[in-house]
Specification:
alpha+beta, globular, six-stranded antiparallel sheet, 438 residues
């Protein structure tokens, strides 16, 4: 009799412990108590009860879904300082998870549509440890690999629903998931804390060109309506070239300048943009076919919409782009990722030796690089400030910055950064600037 894997109940089928199939493993090994906790967590989130949600949170099968935990931690840290639009973003994310939890048929439809749009063919559905399917050698006998193939396809499509930007757009907005969640699940407390949630649910996709940045605002040019708009800048344009063209959804907010993107927009190429703009006046959803044509033509990469996820109050990606067809792999250590950057690696070793954890050391070193690169170059700060803002939100990183990033030459830079971040983070920038002056 074989011994179950650590953390797996006795009697669990051996196939269920196969880490190539994290969803099957998760479903086969999760306890009834954990299922109850997951339900309580979702109910608490819909009720805007962050503390209860954190207390009942159960980690899911995919690392791509980790933003649920990060959302809860972020809202807990923000407390009463959370901007209303952050709750609107949270409602959108909750609605996607709610549809999956109740096995809404839109989940399968959106995952399949997103997959078909962003992949030239279906080769990623072939298990990587099996030879590609050959119809000429197929017979009507029982295929011992058939179960693996079907299970792998299920895994890939499940991860596609979690990680694909298009799947989110389709189920939350195009097919009405957010509006249904608002009408059937969201509490009055959650709706009242949010920003124009029903207007968000009805917002339309558009094609925009990133323009100039000033403080915490960004100018964008609307290619469909031929007009310039000013939106709240949360960093989406900071890590892409100037005049980048994006597909996104502008939504109303009470905070100035009155508009923002509901999530980080998707970068597209000029020819695809022209095709979508040309269709938009007559059709509502044919933009998907324009994206697929771009994949086939090689203008957009295969799987281009699996781009990672962002915090609620930032549009900077958390972590590298995701490969939805890849099996789970343990993440490398911070020093492993810095093997080609010896100066940074040496500084991180010093910070680790000073007692900082890897995530805190990473935050401090990143802020040091921004400060060193921005001192005397104020024109770079609007594009770099959102990166610093991500780390300022973390209490541990903030305390470490007070120790390691308060040299006298950084005072002016901290004050300039304060002008480019959201209001709830400005006091921390001013405290850091004052520490530089003392």
């Amino acid at each position: 009799m074989s011994t179950p894997a650590p953390g797996v109940a006795a009697g669990t089928p051996a196939a269920a412990t196969d880490r190539r199939f994290p969803l099957r493993h998760f479903l086969a090994t999760i306890s009834f108590e954990d299922r109850v906790r997951m339900g309580r967590c979702m109910k608490a989130q819909a009720a805007r009860d962050v503390g209860t949600a954190i207390g009942n949170y159960v980690w899911g099968p995919y690392p791509e879904a980790a933003y649920e935990a990060f959302d809860l931690i972020e809202l807990s840290q923000l407390g009463d300082d959370a901007p209303p639009w952050a709750y609107s973003r949270w409602i959108g994310r909750q609605s996607q998870r709610w549809l999956a939890a109740v096995a809404d048929p839109r989940v399968r439809e959106c995952a399949a549509e997103a997959f078909a749009t962003t992949h030239e063919d279906f080769s990623v559905l072939d298990p990587p440890w099996l030879p590609p399917f050959d119809p000429d050698s197929f017979d009507d006998g029982e295929d011992e690999d058939e179960e693996d193939s079907l299970e792998w396809a299920r895994e890939v499509m499940s991860r596609e629903f979690v990680a694909n930007w298009l799947a989110f757009q389709l189920c939350v907005y195009e097919l009405g998931g957010m509006r249904d969640f608002l009408e059937r699940e969201a509490s009055d407390a959650l709706i009242e804390a949010s920003d124009h949630p029903y207007e968000w649910a009805d917002a339309k996709l558009g094609v925009y060109i990133y323009g100039w940045r000033q403080g915490d605002t960004l100018s964008v040019y609307d290619l469909q309506n031929k007009q310039e708009r000013t939106v709240l800048h949360l960093g989406a344009s900071s890590d892409v070239p100037e005049c980048t063209i994006v597909l996104g959804r502008l939504v109303p907010i009470t905070q100035e300048p009155g508009l923002m993107f509901e999530s980080r927009p998707l970068v597209i190429d000029p020819e695809t943009a022209r095709g979508i703009v040309g269709l938009a006046k007559e059709y509502d959803a044919d933009w998907l076919s324009e994206l697929w044509k771009a994949v086939v033509a090689g203008r957009l990469s295969d799987g281009f919409a699996s781009v990672g996820f962002t915090p609620l109050t930032s549009d900077l990606l958390r972590g590298p782009p995701l490969d939805v067809g890849a099996a789970l792999n343990p993440s490398a250590s911070l020093l492993d990722n810095l093997v080609d950057f010896p100066e940074d690696a040496e500084r991180v070793r010093e910070l680790l030796a000073a007692g900082l954890s890897e995530p805190v050391a990473d935050g401090v070193r990143t802020c040091e690089i921004v400060l060193e690169g921005s001192d005397g170059r104020p024109q770079t700060i609007p594009s770099l400030a959102p990166l610093v803002a991500q780390y300022l939100l973390n209490d541990e990183v903030y305390e470490a910055l007070l120790v390691h990033c308060t040299d006298a030459e950084h005072e002016r830079t901290w004050r300039l950064i304060a002008d480019c971040v959201l209001a709830h983070l400005r006091p921390r920038c001013h405290v850091l600037a004052s520490a530089c002056a003392s």
